[in-house]
């Protein structure tokens, strides 16, 4: 379908596709096997100015916004979801600064993020606070001109590799979620260390680690916004980032569909290509329809965000849920079309199916986000009644 990309967006899309095909595709199986963090590809993306896309022009970015970022994520994920996730998670870590940082914080950090010199990460999840973000236990206690942070964050993408971390902690535990605050913590700060790199079903080359804070002292200037704003920072950050998760799933599904079509054309059974079998054709048709529907929803949501809309909680949740459920189905069907070889690591379908699953889980499980969508729907209907 034609989405009427601007000339600049077309150039960005072509550049991302070139990196995906020339730099990611040749090594994706190796990266999956070795679980090596893709630093060489990150450097290529930085050299191509892809990290500037989501940063405003006044901070040395291109100011292209959510839509262009989704286009890049989609193209990268078409080749490898794990590499694309590393890029998308960098934007996620930058969002709290973009949305709520003061001018000094933006000047200090955003130019380094824009040139790809420093990766970022977002630290919210804990062992007891997954879907229930309000259940975090990590604390920051004021001590003169500093805050002392104690606690552990879990399953943090880009953990250990990123240089800049935006984390959500409790500055007033007695107030529950209203006592949460956001801080910027730099790698190398005394008292800030990392757990082991997690061994995962999929997205294996993406780094997932614990963030461990033991009497970690950060200056009060690292507080994002004000005390007590952390839960709002979290919700607005996730609302803004969910189309990007949808784009991860979208690109992954596109790659799986393309691989399934190519294999169905060249695989012969009963004297003809399996692509001539109606049952296979119907599977491919359903995959294509669902994929295109997801793309329309993601693109529309991203453009809504870029328009300056004040509220897009429902749209962001729908884009994430629909696209990630679609990707799980499309990659599963791709394995089915490949047949026995689809289960083997010599072919890409099994990796794509493994990579797809996590997209239904992180940044809000699809079950929880259905609750979010329903609440927004009911609230809207009530206001119109």
Strand order of the largest sheet: 1-4-5-8
Percent helix, as a range, is: 40-55%
Number-wise, the strands total 10
Most strands sheet: 4 strands, mixed
Envelope shape? globular
Tally the structural domains. Answer: 3
What is the CATH class name of the largest domain?
Mainly Alpha
Helix and strand content put the structural class at alpha+beta
Second CATH tier, the architecture of the largest domain: Up-down Bundle
Q: Which whole number gives the mean pLDDT?
A: 96
The fold-level CATH name of the largest domain is Butyryl-CoA Dehydrogenase, subunit A, domain 3
Radius of gyration: 21 Å
Number of DSSP helices? 11
Which runs of at least 5 residues are low in confidence (pLDDT < 50)?
none
> What separation lies between the terminal Cα atoms?
37 Å
Structure write-up:
Helices cover 52% and strands 15% of the residues. The protein folds into 3 domains: 7-119, Acyl-CoA dehydrogenase/oxidase, N-terminal domain (Butyryl-Coa Dehydrogenase, subunit A, domain 1, Orthogonal Bundle); 121-229, Beta Barrel (Butyryl-CoA Dehydrogenase, subunit A, domain 2), CATH 2.40.110.10; 231-384, Butyryl-CoA Dehydrogenase, subunit A, domain 3. The protein is built from 11 helices and 10 strands. The radius of gyration is 21 Å and the shape is globular. The longest helix has 37 residues, at 230-266. Strand 2 and strand 3 form a beta hairpin. The chain has 385 residues and is an alpha+beta fold. The protein has a 4-stranded mixed beta sheet with strand order 1-4-5-8.
